[in-house]
C-alpha cells in the first residue's frame, strides 16, 4: 500500500541531480523531504508525479509501478505552482477536478468544500492573479486536493504562508494522512517538519543521507544534558566527566545553564552528581537535538549542489 521511491537516478547533461534515491512513504504517514537548495527534492517529486522521467529506478504504489492511470490519484502541488492566472478560482478548481474524471456536481461540491476549508470561499469569483501570493497558494492546495487524491506530493507547500494558513495547511495534511493517504512534502522550515512529520528524509547532492523518525535520526548523536547550576565554577563539567563538552552556555544573574555533550558510555547522572556538589541545581534533564541541528550536521560535510555525472 506504500509509495515506494526506488533507486531513482537522473542527470541533466553532465550534472547528476539524483544518484540512487530510495525511500518509502507509508499510507497514513506524513513524510518530510528536506535538503539544501539544489539537493534534488523537486527532481524527485517531479519524477514521482511522472512529469519527468528518471534515467533509472522506479516509483511504485501498492506494489505496482505508478503508471499513468494511477497518477490520476496523485494530488500534486508543484514548486512553480501552475494555475491559470486569468481564470477564476472556482472555475479553475472545478475544471481541474473534472480533468480528473469527477462529475460536474461532484467537482462543484469539492471546490466549495475545499475553498471554504482553506478560507478562500469569498474569492471563488476572483481571477487567481488578483489574489495575494499566500492566497494563491491556498488555491494551489485546493487544486491538489479537489479530486480526492490517494497520494499527496507537495513541493514547498508552506513557503510564504502566514501563521494561520500554516496551521490550516498542517491540519489538512494530518487529516489526509489520517484518512490513509501517504503525504510527502518538501520544506526548508525544519521546525515545522519536525512538528508535523512522522518521518523525515534528508537528501544531499542527489543522495538520501538519512531517513527515519526525528528520534531515529537523533540516535547515533552523542547524548546531551541541560543543567542549571548557578554556583558552579569554571571547568566543572570537564573535571567531572573527562571528554564532556559544553555545546551551549547561557548565564544570567541567577542562573548558569549549560548543555553538555557526553562521551559515549557516560551517564547524565554523573553530571547531575557533579552539579549538586557545586551548590544548588535549578534544572536538569536530557536535551533533544532539534532537527535543524541534525540537518546541519548531516549536510555539513559536502556542499549540497549536485555533482557532475
Ligand atoms: N531542467 C534542469 N536542467 C538542468 N539542471 C537542472 C534542471 N532542474 C534542476 N536542475 C539541477 O538539478 C539539481 C537538483 O535540483 P532540484 O530542483 O531538484 O533541487 P531542490 O532540492 O528542489 O532545490 P530547492 O530547495 O532549491 O528547490 C540542481 O543542481 C539543479 O540546478
TrEMBL record:
InterPro entries: AAA+_ATPase, ABC_transporter-like_ATP-bd, ABC_transporter-like_CS, P-loop_NTPase. It holds the Pfam family ABC_tran. The keyword Transport applies. Belongs to the ABC transporter superfamily. It comes from the Bacteria. This is ABC-2 type transport system ATP-binding protein. Keywords: ATP-binding, Nucleotide-binding, Transport. Residues 3-230 form the ABC transporter domain. One of its GO terms (molecular function) is ATP binding. It comes from Flavimobilis marinus.
